[in-house]
């Protein structure tokens, strides 16, 4: 009888010990074998034609940038900008070389200052810049991005991920698991809608984490690329 009780105790202890180990073994591949964030567009234009509203130069090179293009009335995008600050900036502002840049036409400078003051009332924006340029420069810059949005009110709520080498990051195939199962037509993810909290919390936040993981692994020399992004970039160019 005592032997049976002792055996039960040993079995229970064994199960309690093995469960966390088994869990970690299942977790390990998901952590390390993630899908890298794809290069959807190379050679994004540098912001040489722009300056901050304080007259300082702004630069994409060697930074991981979340970039948006605002309208002539940036105050109309205040909700989208606040979402970006709360859900993305506050989460990633401690990461090395991370920055947010929102650009707008020169004529919107006063509106940008008011928007900046509103954001500063919550916290300091050390890694956030509002930049201005002439409309032609804005159009030229936007043409260097891969986007599916036209120049309408919706496009001003979109933000893009630009890596340290002036590559736009995103996904050529953003289908969910149910969509993949049902063989839905593939569609890409090239920008993120700041008016949609789910887009920022789930998609953009996760994609930025993946990109920071890639850079961390590259620094350690542990990053392995299967050239999937280059293959996708080539095939996309052939189709278009």
CATH T-level fold name: Glutaredoxin
| Biggest β-sheet description | 8 strands, mixed
Structure classification? alpha+beta
Number of helices: 7
Integer tally of domains: 1
Give the overall pLDDT as a whole number: 83
Q: Give the CATH H-level superfamily.
A: Glutaredoxin
Reading the helices and strands in chain order gives HEEEHEHEHEEHEHH
- The rounded distance between the terminal residues' Cα atoms is 76 Å
CATH architecture: 3-Layer(aba) Sandwich
DSSP summary, beta strand count: 8
Inertia-based shape: elongated
Determine the fraction of residues in helical runs and give it as a percent range: 40-55%
Amount of beta strand: 15-25%
Task: Note poorly predicted spans.
Answer: 27-33, 227-240
Radius of gyration: 22 Å
CATH class: Alpha Beta
Account of the protein in words:
There is one protein chain. Helix 2 packs parallel to helix 6. It is built from seven helices and eight strands; from the N terminus they run αβββαβαβαββαβαα. Strands 1, 2, 3, 4, 5, 6, 7 and 8 form an eight-stranded mixed β-sheet that branches. It has helices spanning 2-32, 78-92, 109-120, 135-143, 177-181, 197-220, 228-239, and strands at residues 38-41, 51-52, 64-69, 98-105, 128-133, 158-162, 168-170, 192-193. The chain has one domain: Glutaredoxin (3-Layer(aba) Sandwich), CATH 3.40.30. By secondary structure, it is an alpha+beta fold. Helix 2 (78-92) links the parallel strand 3 and strand 4.
Produce a short descriptive summary.
The protein has 240 residues and is of the alpha+beta class. It is built from seven helices and eight strands; from the N terminus they run αβββαβαβαββαβαα.
